[in-house]
């Protein structure tokens, strides 16, 4: 038996595995930053007035196996029944090859948003597949790379139609009453602060401009939203309604079921301008509400007003096709308060899963699944009718609405006794949906509850649905070869591996992105998310069936309140941008409740992340920019001027702390006092919470509300740009205005601002990740992580300061958990740009730090606590070597235009071609310090972004395009 080591001690073992630097490493790093201890470093870097006066009292679990046992016990408190609730959430089979090789594969789940496209070609191709699926099935020209969920996609469609319509300014949004109720509720929440009026009416009989106007209460209409099939299950031919809307100058959005669209006429064919929905039933578990990838597609002419992200095809420096995010000038960090929506609204990992579900099944497989689903519903409808039940007439796909004359509760209880959840619409009506996972036994159980015989259907003899001719799809779908080439598991496995190999994720090396906190996502934390007790819960399941997952919600809410010093927390926001939106809605509602209806000005520092301004505009606030002082802090004199200028109209200030410039501003408490004295509220953006946990609490040093990023600070993986969870934390006076939900009274206060996500608890299925992280770390471990993150950033700054000026720092030259390297002087003297350095880092085996944010021409580096001293040194040595390459350009030894920096990244293929550069092939691909045994090869050369925007291609190109 081996001798036990200090790592065998159960309590700190996980902490030591998460916090990478050893005690010896810490000593080396402290020496480099000229500090005698970690505590001395904190005393020097962090203003004493904001320091917490008590330790973070959260008990750590004894070990990783102990946490798994706890999670098993919690999972056992959930009761997973067969769900036939529907309402946009359905059982689905996640192909094992997709579950294991995407959802459970760190090559996919630890990747970052593909802002560096040369090292993101795999996930960009997968997202292009996603866009192609959506485009083909909806029949509209351009599809985006995912949104958060169906309800928020409907809300985004509302604002897109408002922008695209030529209707009068006071025109209304007309919504069919059979749209999913959660979508109506979320859209109403979004509409109120924008001054948009929602009119909900029965639109089934609307077929001309006069009846359209009548349905809208004799008002002009800028947009119409319909569900296809609708929430009751009925399939309506919306052609006449669409023509009437267009005659009235309105646009039309169809919230459509993609599986049904394999059989149904595409919305684009009957004139819809926009299609939205969810891709959940394409292999993504219900997960008590998420995460799931929403979608949006639009007709020609609307693509440049789409929200979110769009993957396009461009060319690289060698002229080869290459993928990138297209139309990036739409992003809110560029457009700020002029942004049309918030870019941080994507579910990339889930979009990849849905796309690969379509690749795996192909058009024939998807159509077969859809036909079988419809056959089950048809057989059940026949059985119920034979027993005398009143099943709603009309064409349907998978959902039946049954009138039972006062027996709805009895029917629901009878089905529940058989292990099946149905949806009680009212005392007289039951709704039920079948799906891919529904078995003959499930159908028999439901029939029994109605007193009917077991339905019979022949899965081997599935015919065309018996629908009206106008509703039956006749065109081919998913004709691209990618949907016909990977139906064997061998082919699929190799395809997924090929794509993963083209990407750079945390499983390869450090991703030192400032403001993004790319830290370890430990395997134990991830383990529970695929357990059926969490994955297979319907978000609207009865509360007594979801006690386990809701206990995780309650624990996390309590822990996050303790960590931040706030009083109440909502976990409903399913992205950081949603958390910002929810917090600002709470502030606006608070002012209205106090009679301060004119308080609509939101002060935002010039250095703030663009999401702040975009969220403020969405919340109906007016953005006023506050200057940045030369030292990088908020200019308090300008703040005083702006406060005096706006007086009683001041609603809030939004600040990030530590600042976006990576320093602890010692003026933060004074800033809070100034705003509070003027009657405003203080929003502290939680993007940099990794620099505060255990040492300072935003809710205690002056904040009224913060959003947090569980996908940054609390270890939920970024997944290539989503999933995310952005809880909102508030002090007690704002708690009455947190989000709520019409289907879950316990999910928020009755006085809340309404739902901002489709599900009551947002992306609930990934909350066990953060729960496990906090439980494993405990208060001391979380504090140690913060201290080490600060040390690591200061170590990087100290090592690189002689090569690159550190733009902002506090006293003693110290930074917070990130630092900004200023390349502007080097660019002026050499012509080498921040882009050149970012791309050259790929040759050295690194993802670039954050480029040109918050200051153009700079790199913002955040190493986190999870990177070892060896990896920090490897990065620093790469940056120092790049500085030497820049020096060669400055000295005139190498022209900037023909330098290794300007031609980076270098591919393996480039070595086989003619070589006329002033540097060698070896210098190109094996620069100083690169280990040939762990070399990462970029799959493409530098990509021409402008070309891609001029030649917008946003679906899978033909194979001939690559041959050419």
Automatic annotation (TrEMBL):
Signal peptide: none annotated. GO terms for biological process: glycine decarboxylation via glycine cleavage system. The modification N6-(pyridoxal phosphate)lysine is found at residue 712. Residues 16-449, 484-739 form the Glycine cleavage system P-protein N-terminal domain. Its EC number is 1.4.4.2. It holds the Pfam family GcvP2_C. Its cofactor is pyridoxal 5'-phosphate. PANTHER family: GLYCINE DEHYDROGENASE (DECARBOXYLATING), MITOCHONDRIAL, GLYCINE DEHYDROGENASE, DECARBOXYLATING. The glycine cleavage system is composed of four proteins: P, T, L and H. HAMAP family: GcvP. The glycine cleavage system catalyzes the degradation of glycine. The P protein binds the alpha-amino group of glycine through its pyridoxal phosphate cofactor; CO(2) is released and the remaining methylamine moiety is then transferred to the lipoamide cofactor of the H protein. This is Glycine dehydrogenase (decarboxylating).
